[in-house]
Amino acid sequence: AQKVTQAQTEISVVEKEDVTLDCVYETRDTTYYLFWYKQPPSGELVFLIRRNSFDEQNEISGRYSWNFQKSTSSFNFTITASQVVDSAVYFCALSDPNNNAGNMLTFGGGTRLMVKP
Amino acid sequence: DAGVTQSPTHLIKTRGQQVTLRCSPISGHKSVSWYQQVLGQGPQFIFQYYEKEERGRGNFPDRFSARQFPNYSSELNVNALLLGDSALYLCASSSEPPHSGRLEQYFGPGTRLTVT
After folding, report:
1. Residues B88, A43: C-beta atoms closer than 8 Å
2. According to the model, what pLDDT value does residue A59 have?
3. pLDDT band at B1 (very low <50, low <70, confident <90, very high)
4. Which chain A residues contact residue B5 at CB under 8 A?
5. Is the confidence at residue A11, as pLDDT, over 70?
6. Segment 24-63 of chain A within 8 Å of chain B by CB
7. CB atoms < 10 A from the CB of A69, how many?
8. Which residue of A has its CA nearest to B108?
9. How many CB atoms lie within 10 A of CB B74?
10. Cβ distance of B31 and A101 shorter than 8 Å
């Protein structure tokens, strides 16, 4: 069975601080995809990144960066120089194309990030 | 192009009633998935439909059902509502077929259902 754990339920930082959101996953499959989504107060899930299990290169996009480590089954997300607009709930998710339930995403419980001015 | 749209945005129902939620995918997307997000938790997969056929089902009771229409829009029906069905119901569309895994999924704003 697949499982995604986000141990940090809530993080509070002051603007311009760097912050890392942790994500640990479990799956039996060798082929899978990992995702991060942002959910602002409006409720809509905003796609941030997708990573397949064969690509362990870290990725940077502006102030966002992601660290994928298969050895520890982790896919952590770092925001550099955080801003108030980064305040949201962030979800890590896993998909397994061999899952009989089709194209389902298994989400973690989310981490609420609050960035104070 | 318009994104995924859902209606209604908010809904209040009484225990035992039935509810229908609607979703219109992005133009050209043939796959629609439904997720339930209880307050304070991550979304949980309910159904996936592709080309009007059910292609995946999560661990939800038979009170939950869905269908997809020829124009690829979808409805989620929940019968005999319970207090625990109160949640944000999210619809996601994708151009990817089932089991592709790559999941270029785009989520709608959701329907917030409150059961009293």
Report:
1. yes
2. 84
3. low
4. none
5. yes
6. 31-33, 35, 37, 42-47, 50, 52
7. 12
8. A44
9. 25
10. no
CB within 8 Å of B3: residues ≥ 6 apart? B26, B106, B108
Residue found by looking up tokens 């997307």 in the block:
B29
Task: Quote the CA–CA distance of B72 and B80 in Å, as a whole number.
Answer: 26
Instruction: Give pLDDT tens digits for B103-113.
Output: 678 999 999 99
Instruction: Supply the DSSP symbol for A96.
Output: -
Strands A24-26 and A3-5: antiparallel
The chain A residue lying nearest B5, using CA atoms, is A44
Asked whether the beta carbons of residue B48 and residue A52 sit closer than 8 angstroms, the reply is: no
CB contact under 8 A, A43 and B109: yes
> Residue A43's closest chain B neighbor by CA?
B109
Q: Are A5 and A61 in contact (CB under 8 A)?
A: no
Helix (H, G, I), strand (E, B) or coil at A71: helix
CA B13 – CA B112 distance, rounded (Å): 11
pLDDT of A102 higher than 60: no
**What are the CA-CA distances from residue A92 to residues A35, A52, A106, A110, B92 (Å)?**
6, 14, 9, 7, 16
Task: Provide the token pair at A85.
Answer: 């607009």
Partner-chain contact B94 A96, CB within 8 Å = no
> Is the Cβ pair B101, A109 closer than 8 Å?
no
Whether the CB of A100 is below 8 Å from some CB of chain B: the reply is yes
Q: Between vectors from CA B3 to CA A114 and to CA A85, what angle results, nearest 5°?
A: 20
Is-contact A66 A51, C-beta < 8 A?
yes
